[in-house]
Amino acid sequence: MSTTWLPCGEYHQSYKEDHAWFQTTFIKGKMILLGLILFIFIPRFADSYWLSVCNQIGYTVLGALGVQLLIGFCGQITLGHAAFVAVGAYTSTLLILEFPWPRFILDIGLAYPISILIAAVVAGLWSVIFGLPSARVKGFYLILTTMAAQFITVDFIITQYISQIGGRGQAFSLPPGTIKIGPWIIDSDLKVYYMMLVLTILCITALANLLRSRAGRAWVAIRDNDISAEVMGINIIKYKLLAFFVAGFIGGIAGAFWISNLAAISPEHFQWFWSLWLVGVILIGGVGSIHGAIFGSVFMVVVLELLQLAVIPLADEYPKLLMDFLFIKEATFGLAICAFMIFEPNGLAYRWWQVKNYFNLWPFSY
Amino acid sequence: MQPDDSTGIPSDSGNDITPELTIPKLFVRKARKYGKKRVAMREKEFGIWRPITWQQYYDNVKSLALGLIALGLEEGDKVSMIGDNRPQGLWGEMATLCARGIGVWLFQDCLIDEVKYIIDHSDTKFIFGEGQEEVDKALSIYDECPKLKKIIWDDPKGMRHYHQDCLISLKEVQELGRALEKEKPHLFDEMIEKGRGDEVALLFYTSGTTALPKGALLSHHNMLTMGKHLMDVDPCKETDDYVSYLPFAWIGEQMMSISCGLQIGYTLNFPEEPETAQENIREIGPHVMFAPPRMYEQMTRTVQVKYLDATWTKRKFYELSTKIGYHIADLKFSKKPIPWYWKVLQGFAYLTVQKKLKDHLGLSRVRNAYTGGAAMGPDHFRFFHALGVNLKQIYGQTEVAGISVVHRNDDIKFDTVGRPIPGTEIKITEEGEIITRSPSVFLGYYKNPEATKDTLRDGWLYSGDKGFIDDDGHLVVFDRTKDVFILKDGRPFAPQYLETRLKFSPYIKDSWVIGDKRDYISAVMCIDYSVVGKWADEKKLNYTSYQELSQMPEVYDLVEHQIRQANKDLPDVAKVRRFTNLYKELDPDDDELTRTRKLRRAFVEKRYQEIVNALYSDRDAVHIDTVIKYEDGRQSHIKTDLKIVTIKD
Q1: N or C: at which end does chain B have fewer Cβ atoms within 10 angstroms?
Q2: pLDDT exceeding 90 applies to what percent of chain A?
């Protein structure tokens, strides 16, 4: 059965219709409106600062999607997702800086797009390696193995070895003009914004499609009860690893995308706190829903920006606030998670569902 | 469409009903016209509405009809159908008609005695049962009905260990049919061509509030003229959707699915299960609906109960829009123009509440909703008009193949049933009995010439209902002649009227009003178990059964309050003075109601003699010691005291 709330007189004669995305004119209208806002309204009216906030949101969404897939849909708790984002970012950077691209590819500006794809695949495979323990271990033990992924990848391999390539020391800097898609050089927040939109929509579409396929149903079955999933004939190791691959793949895209926004990349961008942050995002947004990853990202990024705006006027009186902003940020993160766990344990996505239900059930309550 | 020489059927110019036209001829004509292009019916299965095109419908009926002939069906043989509303049931009926047999439908929930009576009385040769349950019923009477040859089933669930010779599956019958088709490829068309409109099509057993069911013989012509005349009043479109969920053994469903459905060619939709019907109706959102009042009463009750449970804001919006709705409805009933500011308010009510409310009830797309088969209370009727649903009363009976009187758009009065449909004459005899003459009047009762003589006199159908025609030419149906009360002051009084008013309360499921030639009126009430139960839960009242709940003093207060509401605008002699809550709901399985849920007054009066006596004495309780029958046939002994309450002014 379709989970969409259908108005009276809308019914399905085939399973294809039953699983279609935009089933009613109301939903189609809503999506068109959303498209207009994203593609026309925001680029037109947002200044560079708010565009960069939007880009931050997009990056968080891309990162959180993978975490949502692993935790929310497949039940594999991960605390090392930043590692795969890092693998994507570094793969893409290295390919751009070091790979001897044939001239014509550079001329038509395909180096960066190709590097995104390769980065995604490499990150996916890297994720599968650290997903292997999930065949044997569950719960707390899996959390530890994924944390190991973080420390081995970022703190050991990337910091100690990868960063030394080319003898640049800690950071890779990307010279202006190297990030180029076709004829467009990505050199402004607006261009990054458009790229972010396209990539985010592609990834969400792909993930949503996977979730309504056999793979998606297998993941949910594994999450709900891995033993009964296995009894039903699902090869749980295969599907768990597939989940790790897809999560790493999207994480790789996130990393490769993010270098367009950074002048220089260094391991500090992919610390363990970022992995934890992404888990916080889906907890606040709602576990087990794509909406949740989006809502959580918007909420976390916007709240922090507002916090920053609130702190700046106070800085004259209390300069310590500005100096210790990092701690305020982390304290807010902790507070938000606590508050959500107590007051809205199902996250913002559930609240959204309730709001929709309120009007769908109008004028009744059930 | 080109004239079709193979069947000799005239081209499809409108729906002219010639004496030659039969239901199968019309069916073949429509199937040829629509073919694979249009969906004839849908059935909800495994979550989706599976379409069946006219071509598939035709193919199935054809092989089934030929299969029946291969099994030995001859002209005029009776074939019975029993089961839920499913495409296969309708195929069975259509195949019977195509094979020149006569169709008989049984109610799905008929008890075994009723099944036996009808099968035996109708000389049924074949019986279409849906699955194991129906097959069991048929098998248990097989030996007692010598004329019954074969039992046809189609749902294989639970049928694995049934190997009796008299059983055959629908698929096997169709195989036989296809084999016969190879032998005689023109047989099907020839048979359809042979049919004439005045031949008997269906044998319909009327529910009868008084005696054993009588079999009414309806011809093809009866059925088709009936449908045409209704469609003349309220035309339907071929793109319409109709949900078929009421028993086919009820003439109203035959009228909508066959008489009208076949002529218009709209799509019939069959629900997944009888239990999901309400939900499925909401999904389809039919354009036309015909249901007995109890369906609408149930909808009203759902709305009332859900309203009570809604949050404050939602309740206020609901209250406001209902007030507006009632005002507009009353203006319409009195045929006054609606001032522009009320139209604005109406728009507000529509946007804020009514649109969504109709959506919840599955009435969003309804053009015409009909109710008939029993009396509907004015409160319910106004409720739907206040919602903006074009609800119409109709009046008819099995003996006129459906209906004879209906409301017209913009000429709706909630205390009448409207004006006769084209081709129908209605008169009132000197005794006040309603009589009808039309091409749809039936041929007579099967094997019952006496009853036929009583009912059919000089082409007029004597209905046994009392009524009159008002100044606007609308028919007002009072009640069954034998049910009309004479009050203390000599005035006639229709108990139905009071009963339907009492039923407007969501807490009351059924009521039975007594008071013919008595000093005052009293009532026996049946509470609605789920609604009152929920109410009691909220009040933290403990109960374990219907019986216990019904006898709680708080529940008596609740019911008394509802009766006082209904008493309000009645003259003193017509007010309910004493009442009691019955320890059980009235049930067709106990013969207290007919299968269409009409109260069998004479029967209940006899059965609950003690209660009636107590109501007309000065006692304040009555002791009951009785046996009740459950649906699965178990019996249980009941001993209880029923409280009797006197309502003081």
Answers
A1: C
A2: 68
Q: Residue B39: list chain A partners with CB under 8 A.
A: 13
Q: For the domain B288-364+366-481, what is the CATH superfamily, name and number? A: ANL, N-terminal domain (3.40.50.12780)
Let me know: does A366 contact B306? Beta carbons within 8 Å. yes
Q: b vs e for B29-65, b when ≥16 Cβ sit within 10 Å of the residue's Cβ? A: bbbbbbeeebbbbbbbeeebbbbbbbbbbbebbbbbb
Q: What pLDDT does residue B15 have?
A: 57
Residue A192 has pLDDT above 50, yes or no: yes
Q: Which amino acid is at B343?
A: K
Q: Where are the beta strands (DSSP E) in B444-588?
A: 444-445, 456-457, 460-469, 475-480, 485-486, 492-493, 508-514, 521-527, 576-581
Return the DSSP state at B590: G
Architecture of domain B486-646: 2-Layer Sandwich (3.30)
Q: Give the H/E segment covering residue B339.
A: none
Pairing status of strand B475-480 against strand B460-469 = antiparallel
**Contact flag B356-A14 (C-beta cutoff 8 Å):** no
Judged by CB atoms within 8 Å, which residues 18-77 of A form the interface with B? 18
* B314 to A363: CB separation less than 8 angstroms, yes or no: yes
| Secondary structure of B251-278 as H, E, C letters | HHHHHHHHHHHHHHCCEEEECCCHHHHH
Q: Which helix (DSSP H) or strand (DSSP E) does residue B459 occupy?
A: none
* Residues A147/A82, Cβ–Cβ less than 8 Å: no
Among B39, B49, B281, most A C-beta atoms within 10 A, so best to mutate, is B49
Domains B23-195+249-260 and B486-646 share a fold: no
In a domain, A227, yes or no: yes
Query: Is ipTM beyond 0.95?
Result: no
User: CA B292, CA A79: separation in Å to the nearest integer?
Assistant: 62
Domain B23-195+249-260 class in CATH: alpha beta
CA distance B26 to B223: 12
- Of the CA atoms within 13 Å of residue A353, those in its CB half-sphere come to 16
* pLDDT-flagged residues of chain B (< 70): 1-15, 207-211, 631
Would you state the pLDDT for residue B517?
86
**Nearest 10 degrees: CA dihedral of B500, B503, B505, B510?**
170
Residue B30's nearest CA partner among B233, B227, B177, B200 is B227
- pLDDT at residue A203 in the model: 97
Of A17, A18, A365, nearest to B309 by CB-CB distance is A365
